[in-house]
Description:
Blueprint: H1 2-17, H2 24-35, E1 40-42, E2 46-52, E3 55-67, H3 71-79, H4 81-98, H5 108-123, E4 130-139
Antiparallel strand pairs: 1-3, 2-3, 3-4
Amino acid sequence: MRYLQVIAFFFFAAAAAGFPGSGGYEARAASKEAANIAPFMALDTLTVAIIHKHKIYGSLIISLQLEVDELQQRSNIAKMKAPLRDAYIMTINRYVSNSFDPRKRLNIELLRGQLQHQTDAVLGEESAPLLIDNVMIRKTH
């Protein structure tokens, strides 16, 4: 009886590990195939000058990504990268000149909301959630 328990244990352990012929292997292969498409699509890094009280304070460098699930949506967004970049640069310039004080913290939620609004306007029905990957302020003095 103990011998059958040991064999049953190894059989179920092999199925859980995903060895070929155990049933778990096919599920793992399908999940690896789906994982080959990264859920985020990186966009170009944007750099905008920060001008405060008529002097150049520094530059705001920001990296953005879009959450994209489908291959077709990814190719449609790739075609719209230039209009997205233009809309993002105008929005960041507007934010830096009107709403940003370099002596205070950056309001990342406000900026993300404005950039998401531009994403929705440019992409329309193909819109995707925006992720701000990295933000850096480089001071000139």
